[in-house]
């Protein structure tokens, strides 16, 4: 329930407060409904996955009197960073069925005798038992398993795999071994591993959806609308039309001393943003391409805010993005120099090793130890003062950790975590005050964060800094949410699944015919024949839907000739029409009367006994495999699925500036609407259009896109809601800065995205890039193509490209081995757009380098290699990127590769070299960004072998 008293706190009239209350409620009503339906749907969602064991930890209890010398030996070996081999005469550990076993000492207890952890490398669970001194038959306790999630054969599609991985790495799923919940110690998205407690009984585990995050999004919406704080006025403004929004003035105070920013090209823009963010009373927005210095700008802002005594909440959708900022602060010793007291919220396993010492638990323990040692030093020199004695007793008590924790929480001025993980911060979780605990919230990588996800941490701050790049990938879309919500709405409108099937399959008869005409496979010999049961009640609706689609097309002849055969005897004109039709809907009992009139390449959907022609049989079997159990069985997606994937593609095309493709997809959606008689067909179409638009606005756009550009139309409402139209032009201008220069990529790599993605307004090379020391492997260019013609299609796998990449890697390894990097290993990212190609490449890598999964540490070659999907590699970078495009003539089309933002992410990950593997002739004829990119690349420039 919405209480108007809270809106009175904004200092407006009663009438205005009432208007704001109603406006906020109406704007977020659909969000709340959508989240409720998503929670209902996901509570019963469950998937299965298998796993492969990478390593095992054992916890071993030692008898001090018997093994203390051994412990000392282990400690010494560990300090010398040596790997300890199994020694039969010492009987340190016995691994049943695995002799000798390679052991790695991980951890010593401070008392040396209470426990020890070991990691058993490259083993399996079969017959795996550990004993300390086998002659005593003392069994060690099984510790943690580090495992890789994998597919259950024949059960998991690419989409399902992405869902499983997203659930694992976002902690939005709970894992079960039968009825027993599996404790997840942590996950590593980069290496695609998770650490679990103990040994599961089953090889196949279940992952069930945890709706905690969805519930928190719903609660945040309810709280903002129902109980807003006066500091939340800017958030409420987003839910109103421009006329009723109240934006504060941005002052013009100047920064007197800069703490972190360097005088590079673009630093004036960075400084301009810092001053705007300090002076803005509400929002500030930092936009910048890859490598433009967004992180450095945020660090400068943090230092200035802390100098003003402000408390900051730093969040992002991923752990990597959060740790990236914190690592830079620590590496530059800014926490010491500028008084930054950071706290990282998150489990040890998901936090970067470089900043794990700043986790709350770690800081509590290290601070307590430091204080106790200091007090012990004092006590050895003199008697405690009363306050020292009191502090000493408090630290020694069972509540000693709480004493330290409270002090740390009171003094910390930078609290860091993911948008959901931050809810575990004590100042939020245990908050008793109505007042937001943070002065400023900074959201990094905002192009990956939806409005409802942003809202969770936003409620705990008084103003907000948004940083990101709208020209990179948008938030991950869980199509299941959209599909189920759309299905619920259709049912409400009495647009049943069976009637949706009618619309889908009449539409598909058009699509299949068009595709046959485009792929050059003798369209004159092709016809789609759908054989229906005699008692099918939908023949009238099929006729009406065919007529509706014909009317929707501007060209009267655009809709392929489609014939309905449902009466006996079959009229002569219908029989003649069958001979030139591209689609036929026919009763089963009438099929024999028309079969001799069908073209030789007809595809038949129906009962097997109807199929007589060999050519028909193949087509029928092929299509039956792709069909689902519907009334018609003509599509591998249901009606809702066909709508939803088009919504996602429409947003991609709109973001990419491809208005023609966007409009084409939008027209497709209209053609999937019902054209036959319902109770109120016009009302049904109007409500479907409204529901689809609402779902699209809720799930697909990022918060940074909404603030800058808004999102499409506004449902035909007279009032333009700011959340969907974007911040008013003047308001935005005073709060946003776009960074123009890049400091990451070799100029040859940045040239294409600068011109074709950023319109020469951003990604300009910083002056220092021309003088930066680079790796000179011997290529003639820093951005070029290896032309790979696909000889045969195998799903979304291109073996030629994969083999070429493996060959290239051998050359790179030879160079990196002879030329070690000064500041750590060289890095190579093998990227592709398709999950199956990613898996194939990873399998090839594992043959070369056993033990890894997607991440391979090639120490002997001074090299780290990661195999990844482009979408998951956003936010990362590498010295060398090997990019596989996969699609070729054999695949029939480019799929989603024409998405400008996806291509931008792919080609801006490399620092020194970008090597593309693709069938250049297949792409270069295209008149879009993909074709332009291929044309911009040099031909196959051969590797210059060292003649010596």
UniProtKB/TrEMBL annotation:
CDD domains reported for this sequence: SF1_C_Upf1
UniProt cross-references to SMART domains, sorted A to Z: DEXDc
GO molecular-function terms, A-Z: exodeoxyribonuclease V activity; helicase activity
Domain Helicase ATP-binding: 262-496
Class of enzymatic activity (EC top level): hydrolase
Alphabetical keyword list: Hydrolase
The protein's Enzyme Commission number: 3.1.11.5
Keyword field contains Acetylation: no
Keyword Ribonucleoprotein: no
Name of the protein described by the UniProt record: RecBCD enzyme subunit RecD
Naturally occurring in which organism (per UniProt): Methanolapillus africanus
UniProt lineage: Archaea, Methanobacteriati, Methanobacteriota, Stenosarchaea group, Methanomicrobia
């Amino acid at each position: 329930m919405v209480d108007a008293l809270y809106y009175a706190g904004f200092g407006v009239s009663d009438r205005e407060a009432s208007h704001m209350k109603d406006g906020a409620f109406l704007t977020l009503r659909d969000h709340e409904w959508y989240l409720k339906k998503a929670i209902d749907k996901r509570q019963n969602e469950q998937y299965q996955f298998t796993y492969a064991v990478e390593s095992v930890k054992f916890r071993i209890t030692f008898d001090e009197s018997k093994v203390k010398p051994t412990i000392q030996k282990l400690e010494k070996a560990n300090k010398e960073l040596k790997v300890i081999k199994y020694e039969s005469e010492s009987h340190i550990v016995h691994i049943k069925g695995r002799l000798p076993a390679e052991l790695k000492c991980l951890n010593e207890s401070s008392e040396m005798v209470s426990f020890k952890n070991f990691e058993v490398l490259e083993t399996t669970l079969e017959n795996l038992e550990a004993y300390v001194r086998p002659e005593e038959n003392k069994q060690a306790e099984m510790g943690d398993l580090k495992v890789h999630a994998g597919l259950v054969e024949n059960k998991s599609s690419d989409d399902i795999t992405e869902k499983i991985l997203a659930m694992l790495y976002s902690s939005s799923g709970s894992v079960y071994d039968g009825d027993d919940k599996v404790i997840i110690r942590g996950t590593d998205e980069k290496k695609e591993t998770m650490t679990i407690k103990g040994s599961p009984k089953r090889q196949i585990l279940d992952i069930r959806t945890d709706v905690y995050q969805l519930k928190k999004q719903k609660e945040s919406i309810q709280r903002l609308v129902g109980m807003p704080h006066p500091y939340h006025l800017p958030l409420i403004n987003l839910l109103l039309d421009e006329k009723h929004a109240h934006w504060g003035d941005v002052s013009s105070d100047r920064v007197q001393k800069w703490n972190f920013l360097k005088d590079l090209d673009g630093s004036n823009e960075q400084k301009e943003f810092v001053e705007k963010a300090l002076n803005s009373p509400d929002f500030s927005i930092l936009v910048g391409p890859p490598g433009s210095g967004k992180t450095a700008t945020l660090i400068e802002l943090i230092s200035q805010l802390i100098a003003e005594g402000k408390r900051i909440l730093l969040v992002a959708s991923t752990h990597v993005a959060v740790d990236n900022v914190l690592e830079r602060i620590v590496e530059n010793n800014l926490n010491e120099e500028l008084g930054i007291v950071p706290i990282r919220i998150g489990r040890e396993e998901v936090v970067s090793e470089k900043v794990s010492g700043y986790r709350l638990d770690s800081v509590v323990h290290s601070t307590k130890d430091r204080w106790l040692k200091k007090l012990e030093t004092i006590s050895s020199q003199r008697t405690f003062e009363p306050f020292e004695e009191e502090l000493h007793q408090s630290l020694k008590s069972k509540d000693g950790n709480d004493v330290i924790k409270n002090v740390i929480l009171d003094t910390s001025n930078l609290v860091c975590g993911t948008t959901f993980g931050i809810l575990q911060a004590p100042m939020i979780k245990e908050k008793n005050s109505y007042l937001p605990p943070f002065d400023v919230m900074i959201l990094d990588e905002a192009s990956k964060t939806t409005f409802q996800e942003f809202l969770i941490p936003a409620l705990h701050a008084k103003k907000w800094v948004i940083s990101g790049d709208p020209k990179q990938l948008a938030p991950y879309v869980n199509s299941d949410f959209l599909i189920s919500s759309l299905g619920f709405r259709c049912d409400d409108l009495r647009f049943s699944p069976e009637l949706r099937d009618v619309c889908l399959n009449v539409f598909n008869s058009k699509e299949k015919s068009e595709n046959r005409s485009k792929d050059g496979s003798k369209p004159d010999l092709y016809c789609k024949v759908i054989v229906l049961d005699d008692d099918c009640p939908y023949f009238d609706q099929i006729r009406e839907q065919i007529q509706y689609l014909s009317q929707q097309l501007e060209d009267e002849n655009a809709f392929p000739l489609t014939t309905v055969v449902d009466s006996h005897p079959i009229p002569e004109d219908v029989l003649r029409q069958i001979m030139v039709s591209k689609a036929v809907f026919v009763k089963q009992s009438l099929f024999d009367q028309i079969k001799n009139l069908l073209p030789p390449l007809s595809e038949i959907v129906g009962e097997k006994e109807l199929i007589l022609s060999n050519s028909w049989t193949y087509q029928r079997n092929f299509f039956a495999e792709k069909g689902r159990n519907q009334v018609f069985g003509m599509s591998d997606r249901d009606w809702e699925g066909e709508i939803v994937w088009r919504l996602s593609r429409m947003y991609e095309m709109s973001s990419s500036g491809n208005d023609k493709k966007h409009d084409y997809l939008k027209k497709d959606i209209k053609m999937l609407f019902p054209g036959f008689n319902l109770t109120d067909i016009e009302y049904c179409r109007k409500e479907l259009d409204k529901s689809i638009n609402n779902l699209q606005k809720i799930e697909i756009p990022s918060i940074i896109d909404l603030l800058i550009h808004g999102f499409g139309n506004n449902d035909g409402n007279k009032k333009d809601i700011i959340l969907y139209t974007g911040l008013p032009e003047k308001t935005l201008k005073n709060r946003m800065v776009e960074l123009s220069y890049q400091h990451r990529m070799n100029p040859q790599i940045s040239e294409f995205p600068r011109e074709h993605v950023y319109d020469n307004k951003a990604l300009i090379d910083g002056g220092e890039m021309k003088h930066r020391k680079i790796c000179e492997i011997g290529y003639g260019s820093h951005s070029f193509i290896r032309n790979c013609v696909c000889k045969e299609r195998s799903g979304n796998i291109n073996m030629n490209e994969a083999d070429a990449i493996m060959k290239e890697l051998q050359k790179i390894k030879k160079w990196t081995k002879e030329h070690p990097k000064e500041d750590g290993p060289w890095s190579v990212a093998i990227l592709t757009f398709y999950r199956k190609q990613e898996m194939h490449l990873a399998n090839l890598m594992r043959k070369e380098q056993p033990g890894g999964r997607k991440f391979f540490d090639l120490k002997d070659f001074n090299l780290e290699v990661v195999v990844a999907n482009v979408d998951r590699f956003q936010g990362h970078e590498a010295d060398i990127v090997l990019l596989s495009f996969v699609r070729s003539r054999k695949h029939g089309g480019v799929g989603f590769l024409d998405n400008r933002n996806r291509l931008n992410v792919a080609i801006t990950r490399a620092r020194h070299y970008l090597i593309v593997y693709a069938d250049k002739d297949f792409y270069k004829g295209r008149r879009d960004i993909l074709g332009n990119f291929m044309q911009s690349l040099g031909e196959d420039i051969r590797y210059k072998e060292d003649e010596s």
